[in-house]
Amino acid sequence: MTDSFLKRPRVLKVSEVNGYIKGLLSYDGVLSSMWVSGEISNYKRHYSGHLYFDIKDSASKLKCVMFKSNAEKLVFEPENGMKVLIRGGISVFERDGMYQLYAEDMRVDGIGDLHTAFEQLKKKLSSEGLFDERYKKPIPFMPRKIGVITSDTGSVIKDIVNVMSRRYYPIELKLLPCQVQGEGAGARLASAVRFFNRRKCCDVLILARGGGSLEDLWPFNEEVLARAIADSEIPIISAVGHETDFTICDFTADLRAPTPSAAAELAVPELSQIKSRLSQLSQRVNKIPYLNLEVKKNQLKNISSQTFFSKPTAFLEDRKLELDSLLSDLIYFAEDTGRNIKNKNSLMAARLDALSPLKILSRGYSAVVDSDGSVVKSVKNTDIGDLLHLHLNDGVLDCSVEKKEVKNVGR
Predict the structure, then answer these.
(1) Domain housing 242
(2) Is the C or the N end of the chain the one with fewer CB within 10 Å?
(3) Concatenated DSSP letters for 265-307?
(4) What is the pTM of this model?
(5) DSSP, res 377
């Protein structure tokens, strides 16, 4: 045999094979970084924060994982059946010998990520009742102190001040400058809402900013701000963007204004409205004495028109007839009751007379009593020579027993 047959071939461990494949994939220009489209299935968010799922098309399926650090950057929640675009690279999980796509970024395929996130949060909060009208607080008609949460550098605060200054008496305006755009803005806005509620320093709050893209307005679509608005004890007017812009804040707030200027108009009534309201109240107050007098006059008229006042004797005659009728009924009732009692007594007397021992004796019967006074009911209760007393209808006979004869009378 030659040396080539005797030489042992190289043997690789399983881990070496998986490691070798992983190295090949990591150096592949296409598989190391690419975009993949597909539909999510078997989605699971692990308690660690990592996302595990598959993406599939009509012919195949690919396992995916997105680690927590990348998952936290998503503005929407992935769902089964959602079509997505995923950026990442293919690698091997050496322990299981399984290749999968390690996702670094994910976007909704077809519609924007922010739009999807908006609809998801809107559906979630609506199901919890945060948008229900029954929880909306009324905006006070004449607030004395108004809080405004917005940027202090834009035109929004100027528009609000201008509107309020020309509508009615001086108001104490409290501005809390706040970031209204960019990362962290939602949390800062929520903190501002909670600040006003802790201080209880205003009657109504205006949450405002000017128009912009969906990305610019996104802080007003964040859950943290929506919940702060829902928890607020102070009524809140949401005035975000232009008239056609809608945010989660608009649905959660107690009142939605199409623009910041409109919010100021809704919060502060015009002086003419107040004067008109006061005039109406003054007229009502002035009419009250006349209205009361008119009511009393009508009441007196109704009373005086009754028969009692127009013909008092007729009232008395009617009462007299009623009294006579009641007296007749009473007499009849008394006589009828007496007759019934008499008849019942007669019936009872007849029954008692029929059952009387004297009545029985008058028909020829007698009652036999021994010397002790006991009634003799049987021959067996006597002996020859006993002295007996026979009670008759008209007297008593004393007799002695000379003979007795026992008869069989039934059983």
Answers:
(1) 144-268
(2) C
(3) HHHS--HHHHHHHHHHHHHHHHHHHHHHHHHHHHHHHHHHTSH
(4) 0.53
(5) -
